[in-house]
Amino acid sequence: MPHISIISASVRTGRLSHRVALYFKKYITENNLGTVEILDLNEYQFPLFNERLDHQQNPLPQVLDFADKIKKSDGIIIVTPEYNGGYPASIKNAVDLLYKEWHRKPIAISTVSDGSFGGTQVITSLQFSLWKIRAWTVPAMFPMPKVKELLDDDGNPADKAALDKRAKVFTGELLWCIEAKRRMEAQV
Q1: What is the pLDDT of residue 120?
Q2: What is the CATH number of the domain that holds 16?
Q3: How far does the signal peptide extend, from start to end residue (predicted)?
Q4: What does the alpha-carbon distance between residue 147 and residue 45 come to, in Å, rounded to a whole number?
Q5: Over pLDDT 90: what percentage of the chain?
Q6: Neighbour count for residue 108 (Cβ, 10 Å)
Q7: How far apart are CA 28 and CA 36, in angstroms?
Q8: Per residue in 81-92, is it b (16+ CB within 10 Å) or e — as a string?
């Protein structure tokens, strides 16, 4: 059974995107798709890094913990809000912190906004950063528009059947990539 980490990218007070991270954790657990944990960047409260982890002299314990969890994950879901047409500095900081841990790691991206576009403007810029560090971005996207209307504070959907239908396609693509990677590595 694969292990999936969900990165909740927002560190803002009153953040709404964390609702989506909570939803995915419940969805994966309820459907027995794998083991799952949320890596909440708001809880990590990373400083602004001036160097990648593999070049740091004395890395912080929470940095080593985060790197270890990414390395041990079979796949990642990044849940990120869109702020002014871009993704938050917190996720860029976390992505740039690591390098080898991202190599060929299947990563699915869910973008979130309270507006009608669901954060779709951020997908290409985040995807490009992930490509540059050789992560494997899953082709399926999961934009969440009007998140306040679709999910409550605990990640419970207003229309579970409709959201679960979309999540099945999205997580299915991630799981396919995880399995493909596992098979390729078994052949090497």
Answers
A1: 85
A2: 3.40.50.360
A3: none
A4: 24
A5: 90
A6: 26
A7: 7
A8: bbeeeebbebbb
Asked whether 5 and 76 are in contact (CB, 8 A), the reply is yes
The pLDDT of residue 119 is 85
* Biggest alpha carbon–alpha carbon distance for the chain: 49
Please list the residues that pair with 77 across neighbouring strands.
6, 108
Strand 75-81 with 106-112, pairing: parallel
Q: Domain limits at 99?
A: 3-187
Count of domains observed in the chain: 1
- Does residue 69 carry a pLDDT above 80? yes
What the block records as the tokens of 96 is 């740039």
Distances (CA, A) of 5 to 39, 84, 94, 138, 145: 7, 26, 14, 14, 22
State residue 75's pLDDT score.
98
Q: Which two tokens stand for residue 177?
A: 């990539």
Helix residue ranges per DSSP H, 40-159: 41-44, 61-72, 89-97, 123-132, 147-150
If we measure between CA atoms, which residue out of 93, 155, 79 comes closest to residue 122?
A: 79
**pTM of the complete model beyond 0.85:** yes
**Cα–Cα distance for residue pair 47/32, rounded to 1 Å:** 35
Determine the Cα–Cα distance for residues 79 and 164; give it in Å rounded to an integer.
Answer: 16
